[in-house]
Specification:
Length: about 290
């Protein structure tokens, strides 16, 4: 194999008039092009891993196959009938229901907030305010929603923080407190954006992610206007897969639909129940 590489090097070198530096540059470019050509395959593999290991659903139509009663061990999970959607355009089967069109929002999450310890969360709160300012100044027309999850049920943000968010025109959406908050459980709280049914698209952004420009184009590519007469380029639900993760939990876009949030919770509960039935250890040393 080493001899083959040397032969290739010599052939390229002779073709370039003996220029050793240029020959090395050509070989490096070929390696980079080969590496880039493998990216789509890696994304496909990540998608398969995601669908089998994570509760997120790539395409809304897949929920239709999960509607009904799920029997897992001695538990029964019910997926609500309002999750049933027509396969034609993903519209609700209830003709009386009017779904929002081209109403968009950016959503952030602050969890585990203690009202008497403001300095523990205000850094993230200020990040949300700065992100909202950048989006608005760069021309965004979408709403900004701060999903607030207090550590203790019944508590609310201090008056000063409520005033700051209100002045910035950031909507406050309180979530029920978690009994035993962990990194895992807080990650799954991000799916609460599916309950924001007043919007047709919601882009979730972690509080430590800072936009540098108007990101409304992502909404527009997923839900173009009727006047543009253009088909959508992005799917209704968009996630980003990286080299080391099947899905980024800090930046993704979903289309909220009636019943989807309950359906996702049922899917998560079913996966968790199956997980605790696995023999110990759950993963081998490899």
């Amino acid at each position: 194999q080493k001899k083959s590489k040397i032969d290739k090097m010599e052939k390229i070198k002779s073709a370039e008039g003996g220029n050793d530096t240029k020959a090395k540059s050509i070989i490096k470019n070929r390696k980079n092009n080969k590496r880039r050509s493998n990216v789509p395959l890696k994304i496909i593999v990540a998608a398969i891993f995601l669908s089998s290991m994570c509760p997120i659903v790539w395409f809304h139509n897949e929920l239709e196959t999960l509607v009904g009663n799920l029997d897992v061990g001695n538990k029964q999970f019910y997926l609500p009938p309002e999750s049933k959607f027509s396969r034609r355009g993903n519209k609700s089967t209830d003709t009386k229901e009017v779904l929002p069109q081209r109403r968009w929002a950016y959503a952030f999450l602050l969890s585990g907030i203690e009202a008497n310890e403001p300095m523990r969360y205000r850094g993230s709160l200020y990040n949300i305010m700065v992100a909202s300012y950048i989006l608005r100044e760069s021309g965004s027309k979408a709403d900004v929603v701060a999903m607030i999850q207090m550590k203790k049920e019944g508590e609310t943000l201090p008056h000063d923080d409520v005033h700051r968010l209100t002045v910035m025109n950031i909507q406050i959406h309180y979530l029920p407190a978690l009994k035993d908050p962990t990194f895992y459980s807080i990650q799954l709280e991000k799916f609460n954006i599916l309950d924001l049914l007043q919007y047709s698209r919601v882009l979730y952004v972690d509080s430590d992610v800072m936009p540098l420009c108007n990101l409304d184009y992502l909404f527009d590519l997923s839900e173009p206007s009727d006047e543009s007469n253009q088909p959508p380029i992005l799917k209704e639900n968009v996630i980003l897969a990286g080299y080391n993760e099947p899905c980024s939990g800090g930046f993704f876009m979903l289309r909220p639909m009636p019943g989807d949030f309950k359906a996702i919770r049922a899917i998560i509960a079913e996966r968790e129940w199956k997980g605790i039935q696995l023999p110990w250890p759950h993963f081998d040393k490899k």
